[in-house]
TrEMBL record:
This is Protease Do-like 7. It holds the Pfam family Trypsin_2. InterPro entries: Peptidase_S1_PA (IPR009003), Peptidase_S1_PA_chymotrypsin (IPR043504). Signal peptide: none annotated. The lineage of its organism: Eukaryota, Viridiplantae, Streptophyta, Embryophyta, Tracheophyta. It comes from Solanum tuberosum (Potato).
């Protein structure tokens, strides 16, 4: 009896398909994790470029459904297309129901923003704004590049501190 229980998880008991399935399920990290080559100066240059694209989002929402509470909140987003006026943020920030929202840029310039998409599966959503509404700031955009994302990639998070400031 002990022998059959031990064999139950073995390839003999499961058949030749089990070794093929194990190979298909194995995951290799590609590219393999390497020691970071970014210097402090590299990060400073990157932050100087991206901070002007980061915005503080202030939202006010009514109670949309039984599971969502009404209220006001702060969040972080960043400009992904400044020509069309598109800001990327998290799904819960865009809200499932009506929302009134503003974006505050690094120079404290505030503009109204409007929800355009809330992904039903992944944790992202988009707001839009009128690019002509930005009068005093020369700001950047952070273009989306999903093909560059990989396991082991070193990142830095830039965001706001409860709506008080942008910090890196």
């Amino acid at each position: 009896m002990g022998d059959s229980l031990e064999r139950l998880g073995s390839e003999e008991a499961l058949g030749p398909e089990s070794s093929i399935m194990k190979e298909e399920l194995s995951m290799d990290i590609d590219p393999p994790f390497k020691e970071s080559l970014a210097t402090t100066e590299d990060w400073r240059k990157a932050l100087d470029k991206v901070v002007p694209a980061v915005v503080v989002l202030r939202t006010n929402a009514c109670r949309a459904f039984d599971t969502e509470a009404a209220g006001a909140s702060y969040a972080t987003g960043f400009v992904v297309d400044k020509r069309r006026g598109i800001i990327l943020t998290n799904r819960h920030v865009v809200k499932p129901g009506p929302v009134v929202a503003e974006a505050m840029f690094v120079n404290r310039e505030e503009i109204p923003i409007y929800p355009i998409y809330r992904d039903p599966v992944h944790d992202f959503g988009f707001f839009r704004y009128d690019p002509a509404a930005i009068q005093f700031l020369s700001y950047e955009e952070i273009p989306l590049a999903p093909e560059d994302a990989c396991v082991g990639l070193e990142i830095r998070v830039v965001g706001n501190d409860s709506g008080e400031k942008v910090c890196g």
